[in-house]
Request: fold
Amino acid sequence: HYFVPEERAALALETGTVGYHARKRLEARDIDLYVGIPFCPTRCAYCSFVSQSVEKSLGLMEPYLEVLCREITDAAQMVRETGLRIKSFYMGGGTPTTLSARQMDRLLTHLNRSFDLSGCVEYCIEAGRPDTITREKLQVLLDHGADRISVNPQTLQQHLLDALGRRHRVEDIYTMYENCRKLGFSVINMDFIAGLPGQTVADMQENMEIVCKLHPENVTIHTLALKKRAPLFHHELRAAIPPAEETGHMVRFCQSILTAGGYVPYYMYRQKYMAASFANIGYALSGSVSAYNIEMMEERQSVLAAGPGGATKFLCRDGHTLEKVYMPKDVDAYVQALAERIAQRRRLCAIIYGKEDV
Reply:
């Protein structure tokens, strides 16, 4: 009736059901916390996220952390004053593990001292680039309470990694995964992208065979979104992007292998500039769904965001409307606008969670 394929409708119902039951556990003053680190070792060809190459902006990292810690201090005070409770914490980017072990220790120490995270059900750090990871950094994350880590290979073929500008070896991914297991992270997520330039169905089959052997708790299958701000948009590699039909074969193969292996789809979303009617789908083993991922997709949960490009979203009293405050994406612009945006965020928080009228 709505021209939706039966398999897509079934997938939407399955992921929606998981999200519905997850959201039933939330209370009115429960919120999520996001902190963004806008630095990466290099820029991946497909990426349009807010990030700056460390090679070009190393001198920005320390001043940025100073300002970010000031924002965290104010945000934590606002949370205390309004009686809000942090239910999940997610640090993304960029690549958070671009920070040194000392910088990460300093940031997480300040974060944990500023916020009451005793009711936090999930403490997740993105560590998507193995060329930014050491055992020392992983230990720092664990020591501060991280229980979920996102290891994002995107693909496990060296020629594709090289073409995309990811300066590491496939073996580095295995080493990183093994270290995460040995050190004791309770949930490991792995991201893969279907439809990369030069990628074949056989490549994705190899990826899923390896996933079945490693057995991470979460697996996310993204479909390539050709974004205008990504280097790939104007790159000669664009001509090597596989046709939608072949990408569809990859996505369906992933779904069949993962569901047969005990993974359940638990969230789904579509981005702009995706081919055909593809979507990004998150899969999880029993008992390991990411609360933060569900709540971000459902958009029925307040999210307090710190850092450039961060979007603070306050859920209004009607349970549907979101009032938002955006931080500038550029680091310098973020620093200049911070005082004004903090005041704006405090005003909205007081209206929604305090006693003021709109």
Q: What stands out?
A: The chain has a mean pLDDT of 92.
